[in-house]
Amino acid sequence: MKKECVLVSGGAGYIGTHTTVELIGAGYDVVIIDNFSNSEMKAVEGVRQITGVEVPFEQVDTCDEAALRRVFEKYDFNSVIHFAAYKAVGESVAEPLKYYRNNLVSFMNICALMREFGRRNILFSSSATVYGEAEVLPVTEQTPRKPATSPYGNTKQMAEDILRDCCAAYDGIRGIALRYFNPIGAHPSALIGELPRGVPQNLVPYITQTAAGIRECLSIFGNDYDTPDGTCLRDYIDVVDLAKAHVAAVGRMTREAMKSDYEIFNIGTGRPVSVLELVEGFEKANSLKLNYKIVDRRAGDVPAVWADTSLANEELGWSADRPLEETLRTSWQWEKHVRGIE
Ligand code: WQD
To answer: How many CB atoms lie within 10 A of CB 291?
Structure first.
């Protein structure tokens, strides 16, 4: 029987590589496209090494409609997972047009070509950032979205709406938006992981780089929040668990099991973890001590957000399984691999 094929845009990135590995493990064919704006060929090679499959790769910018069209002409996929996007919140505030153009033009190109070529399933990489500072926790998919506080966040909301409207208007197009909480960790092989350029903005890469001696000291942004230990609460989801959620969502689409043409799922663990707990968990998991200090709050941080994952658990038959301690071990293994430590 012919295998289902999935196009993965941004497939050389952090979540794209892990998702490709899980898709192949689940029996799918995958075609990766990426423009390497924030990734490199080594990531694709890591995927090929883990899977033992010469995964087809095309260096294509999804904003380049003509180049993207050639991918549609060349490969016979019926589903796309669209990861290709910029994701730095601060940069998006400084350069909004860069974000709106890249994140929205690329997605509209994908949707238009899916329609034109009669391809069916679109899975969009959304974010818990759409919930902003929610009044009731944990957040469900019904929790109202808050006006975005950055152009980055706004592109996630707008792309969700574009997908919703395309699914409503165009016969044969269906979509799922997965709202990720805080993805962390790496593949247990340590052959793929997150590769932030410059000073990391996210907590775990900053922790691992501090442990590696690249950063002197981790700053914990505020310990005077109204939370049990005063530091912010987040829902840290292992990237391999997150990748498996994509496999479950693609399976739901290809099995024709969707209940409506556009669906949204929260993808998290359902467990709130504080910054301090995460730091201490990292120390314990890896038997090391981390240099850290408490500093002022970071502008724009919400005190707490975590997922109600019941819908994904029930409808996708998926749940996050990996214990946090193991995830934090893989984060450190990956950092050591990248830096050539040990
Ligand atoms: C987590 C917690 C910080 C760094 C952001 C985006 C979101 C998503 C993921 C994607 C917070 C604290 C952090 C540090 C710290 N998008 N922290 N010291 O802010 O929840 O989400 O990244 O690509 O859209 O908004 O994640 O990892 O930056 O922060 O104390 O050096 O760690 O204050 O409480 P966040 P984060």
So the answer is: 11
Sheet holding 29-34, edge to edge: 57-59, 29-34, 5-9, 79-82, 121-127, 174-180, 262-267
- Res. 22 pLDDT band, cuts 50 70 90: very high
- Burial class (CB within 10 angstroms; exposed 0-12, middle 13-18, buried 19+) of 66: exposed
Is position 131 annotated as part of the catalytic site? no
- Ligand 1 atom, smallest distance to 200 CA: 31
Give the residue whose CA is nearest to atom 33 of ligand 1: 221
Q: What percent of the chain has pLDDT over 90?
A: 99
Please name the residue whose Cα sits nearest to atom 32 of ligand 1.
Answer: 203
Cα 178 from Cα 246, distance rounded (Å): 8
Q: How confident is the model at residue 1 (pLDDT cuts 50, 70, 90)?
A: confident
CA atoms of 128 and 92, how far apart (whole Å) = 17
Rounded Cα distance, 285 and 328, in Å: 7
Kindly name the residue from 28, 152, 225, 292 that is annotated as catalytic.
Answer: 152
Nearest CA to ligand 1 atom 17: 203
Q: Measured from the CB, is residue 232 less than 6 Å from ligand 1?
A: yes
Ligand 1 atom 21, closest CA: 182
Query: Would you list the DSSP string of 62-119?
Result: TT-HHHHHHHHHH---SEEEE------HHHHHH-HHHHHIIIIIHHHHHHHHHHHTT-
What is the mean predicted confidence (pLDDT) over 69-85? 98
Q: How far apart are alpha carbons 56 and 76 in whole angstroms?
A: 12
- Give the residue, out of 149, 221, 291, 331, with the most ligand 1 atoms within 8 A of its beta carbon, to mutate for a pocket test: 221
**pLDDT over threshold 80, residue 51:** yes
Say if residue 111's pLDDT is above 90: yes
